[in-house]
Amino acid sequence: MFLPVIGHLAAHGEYTVRVRSLCELRGYTTPVDRIRSAGAACDVLMPLRLGKDSPRMQYARRTMTGTVRRWTQAILWRVLIRWNGTPVHPDLVVVPNDAAFPYDRITAALRAAGIPILLMQEGIRFDLPAAGARPYGQGGAAAVAAWGPSSVRYFTAAGVARDRVHATGNPRLDSLRATDWSAAARGARDALGLSGRILLLVTNPIDLQGFCTEEAKYDIVAGFLADAMPALRLRGMHVLIKIHPSESLPRYQALAAAVDPAGMTVTRDADLYPLLVLADAVVTMGSTAGLEALLFDRPLGVLGVPGQGHLYDYVASRAAVPMGTGPGALVELLTPDAERARAQAAYLEDQIAHLGHATGAVVGVIAGLVPAAPPAAGEARR
Length: 382
Prior knowledge:
By secondary structure, this protein is α/β, with parallel strands linked by helices. Helix content is about 40%, strand content about 15%. The chain has 2 domains: about 190 residues, Rossmann fold (3-Layer(aba) Sandwich); about 170 residues, Glycogen Phosphorylase B (Rossmann fold, 3-Layer(aba) Sandwich). α1 runs parallel beside α2, α7 packs across α10 and α8 packs across α9. The radius of gyration is 21 Å and the shape is globular.
């Protein structure tokens, strides 16, 4: 999301950008080459990558108590992350989160050092049962780069001063509609062995967010697929399940095999946008991918969570179809609806500001916090 901003800042030479990556903490691998190609130096803070699919990690995530989790975080912070401030005293630090570990500790360290913070919204924002005592946005950021009017309302309702919240949009979406995704979509279809019409199911770790247990999450997905497959078969549609990078690929593969192995394909690593091009319709739970599906003009369905309803405001805003049991909701999803299309357009205007121009809007916020004029001849801001 920040790479377009890095590229803009590096191209103009008025700021020096350094990325300090925590990707390995989440089981990812830091894309060092992409970051450096964009014009930033890159430090990998974690000396090892925590695997997502190892049985030990999966068991630990399911069984960890609050006390054990706090001790584990303390060990990660002191031994593995080894946070020791910053290589230089920066003029500004950009973070995607200020509430979840370890960003809560990072922002506390930055505040103690008197270093200003820009919080750059990382995903759709709504209240999570698993959230800590301090809401997202309450980490003392000098400014918040929010995606759109809806997010501005969220942050101000959470107690952030209105003059600190800026509707910048999301730089990752700047090139979305200007990019020709057809070649990548054909490549994804061939690589995954897909044919015919496709229903794309995009999952996310609602269990880790506190909305349900891990088993309940799988039951939601399995129940939907079992109900939907007869109607999908009649329409010649294949189900493509795109799981979140933090979720277990073997577990979803086993789930798909138990319901209909010939009618489903599961992927974790395929890029989302080419899959959205291939999809005739998209179903999700409470994921930012739902917003991106609407940006690709795909009809969106949302699975309900027992005791929680339909997450985020896709359904409440009439931009998406609530998916229930039986084929009725699926038929509604696959049937064009002019009123729903109008609701989707209004919804996107409320969600995303400066579509195609968000990079410049974020750079403008940075310049407002740290003017580009160098403090000394030949020295760029950091």
